[in-house]
Design goal:
The complex is a heterodimer of chains A (about 180) and B (about 350). Chain A is of the alpha+beta class and about 180 residues long. In chain A, about 15% of the residues lie in helices and about 40% in strands. Chain A has a domain of about 110 residues: OB fold (Dihydrolipoamide Acetyltransferase, E2P) (Beta Barrel), CATH 2.40.50.120. The N and C termini of chain A lie far apart (about 60 Å). In chain A, about 45% of the residues are buried. In chain B, the strands form 6 sheets. Chain B has a 5-stranded mixed sheet with strand order 4-3-5-7-6, covered by helices on one side. In chain B, strands 14, 15, 17, 18 and 19 form a 5-stranded antiparallel sheet that branches. With about 350 residues, chain B is of the alpha/beta class. Chain B folds into 2 domains: about 130 residues, Immunoglobulin-like (Sandwich); about 160 residues, 3-Layer(aba) Sandwich (Collagenase (Catalytic Domain)). The N terminus of chain B is likely disordered. The chains are: A alpha+beta (about 180), B alpha/beta (about 350). At the A-B interface, helix 1, strand 1, helix 2, strand 6 and strand 9 of A face strand 1, strand 2, strand 6, helix 3 and strand 10 of B.
């Protein structure tokens, strides 16, 4: 490899710095999320808007979903929830670990609620599953971490051929069962 | 991540050692924070040190402001003590401001955030979108949980120093590392191994395992704030991850040094599948490439472009040498669909 080609490749890679995301989380599997969620909704993001919190000390982002389905809880056709951080004017407040949303994304969200405020994501980024079109259907990718069976622990091995994207209908059936709502 | 996973192929791979032509080394590895400014990506880091921080007044049972300040000083000193990095910190005093407020001061303290139900702690960065300048980095510890500053940890309470070391990694500009492993059982999911303090998932309460930096963390901070002979004394490995000849975005690439036991990770970070792992102890390394298919991907990447998950984990079939002060030259690792 020549010095020039190495430098060109270096430039390409260093330009791909990853935007900020980071917190220390307690891990959750799909059973935890399904049980702990006050509501679970599938929908398409139609609006993302940052604003000051009520005490005007911090920034939060309000995400609006056009709901297609409520897997748990009685939600209306439009669902809103809060995500910490956001961009207001010249300044960007990045709360590391808070997922980012864009209009048009299709998602399943696990929502918690406390008092009169808008719902929040259970487990922060762990409480959102992205949907991707594939083979004429919709898949949940990456696959969710499912609860262990029994008391014997099972290692989660990256690259395990069994860890595949899951068809949306299979994912939702699993969520309903884990939430105790039947198939 | 279990070192034994790498050890299994060690003997076989040793026979396949390749000496690659040394080339000028890239300087990118790990996940570093970046923001788009005027169409270009800017690394988020501090331009001046010492980095001044304030400690918020108010505490939690067992951890008052003086205990918090003392423990934070210890956690900061852990990063400051890395001999190959040049970053320093200064305690500027106590404040009645709360972490997360945009006041131009980096503030660290406790906050009750019941809505962040599984978040032990978090770092928020205030960035000028026009210049890309990092103006402030605040850390909060979620007082919904129980905390301890006991020297050996305390059952049922999370260790402030352990979590502080992780969050300070973010404060200086490091993202998450994926060198860790979890398991599930009837009682839920838990972390069973982590060879980095920057793994996003926490060990259980009482653990003090991650007070100590590992090779991956040391390489990361040294890459961001290099000092002394860091670049001359370490090497890097770079290359591409491909599937059916096409580059893969978001593949996790880990370099294991059988001589030292060190693990340093990075990701393929563009559509060509290119990766670069810097800060390696010179010598032969085993490469493992794996999909991030067990993770809360939002902890590592934005949703767009999508990360590739549909491939099997693989060990590269040759040892790759990280030459002192230089790069391995590009290696191409082909992976197979699941």
């Amino acid at each position: 490899m020549t010095r020039l080609s190495a430098l060109l490749r270096l430039a390409a890679v260093t330009c791909a710095i990853v935007p900020a995301h980071a917190t220390v989380l307690l891990p959750a599997e799909l059973g935890d999320l399904s049980r702990e969620a006050w509501a679970i909704a599938r929908g398409t993001v139609v609006a993302v808007e940052a604003r000051w919190t009520d005490d005007r000390r911090r920034v939060e982002t309000i995400v609006t979903l056009e709901a297609e389905s409520s897997l748990k809880g009685a939600l209306g056709a439009t669902v809103q929830f809060r995500v910490p951080g956001g961009r207001l004017g010249r300044y960007r407040n990045i709360v590391l670990g808070a997922p980012e949303f864009a209009v048009g994304q299709r998602v399943v969200v696990f929502l918690g609620a406390r008092g009169p405020r808008l719902p929040y994501l259970v487990g922060l980024g762990q409480g959102v599953f992205r949907l991707a079109p594939r083979d004429g259907g919709w898949m949940v990718t990456p696959p969710a971490v499912l609860p262990g069976a029994g008391t014997a622990p099972t290692r989660i091995v990256r690259g395990d051929p069994a860890r595949r994207a899951v068809p949306l209908e299979d994912f939702e059936r699993e969520v309903r069962m884990l939430a105790g709502l039947g198939p | 991540m279990s070192r034994s996973r790498f050890g299994r192929l060690h003997a076989a791979a040793a026979a396949l050692l390749v000496i690659l032509v040394a080339v000028p080394r890239p300087a990118h590895a790990y996940l570093k924070f970046g923001v788009a400014v005027n169409g270009r990506q800017v690394t988020v880091k501090w331009n001046q040190t010492p980095i001044r921080y304030y400690v918020a007044e108010g505490g939690v049972p067992g951890v008052g402001p003086p205990q918090l300040a003392a423990t934070l000083a210890q956690a900061f000193s852990t990063w400051q003590a890395v001999p190959t990095a040049s970053v320093s910190f200064e305690f500027a005093g106590y404040t009645n401001a709360r972490p997360g407020e945009g006041d131009g001061r980096s503030t660290i303290g406790f906050l009750a955030e019941p809505d962040l139900d599984r978040v032990l702690a978090s770092t928020s960065l205030l960035i000028d979108d026009v210049t890309g300048e990092l103006l402030e980095a605040d850390i909060f510890f979620n007082s919904v949980f129980s905390w301890s500053v006991a020297p050996s940890g305390e059952a049922g309470r999370f260790d402030v120093e352990t979590i502080a070391v992780h969050e300070i990694g973010h404060l200086i500009g490091l993202g998450h590392s994926a060198i860790g492993e979890t398991e599930v059982s009837g009682s839920g999911r838990r972390v069973i191994a982590a060879e980095t303090v920057m793994f996003p998932l926490a060990f259980g309460s009482g653990s003090v395992t991650n007070r100590r930096l590992r090779a991956d963390d040391i390489a990361g901070v040294s890459d961001l704030y290099p000092d002394g002979a860091f670049e001359a004394d370490t090497g890097s490995i770079s290359g591409r991850v491909t599937r059916n000849g096409e580059g893969l975005f978001g593949a996790h690439v880990v370099a294991f040094n059988p001589a030292t036991g060190a693990l340093v990770g990075a990701f393929s970070l563009n559509a060509h599948g290119e990766f670069s792992i810097a800060g390696l102890t010179p010598g032969a390394h085993v490469l493992r490439i794996e999909p991030l298919d067990d993770a809360d991907v939002e902890s590592f990447f934005e949703p767009d472009p999508p990360v590739e998950f549909d491939f099997r984990a693989v060990f590269f079939n040759q040892l790759v040498v990280a030459p002192r002060g230089a790069d391995s030259g590009s290696v191409e690792v082909a992976v197979q669909p699941k």
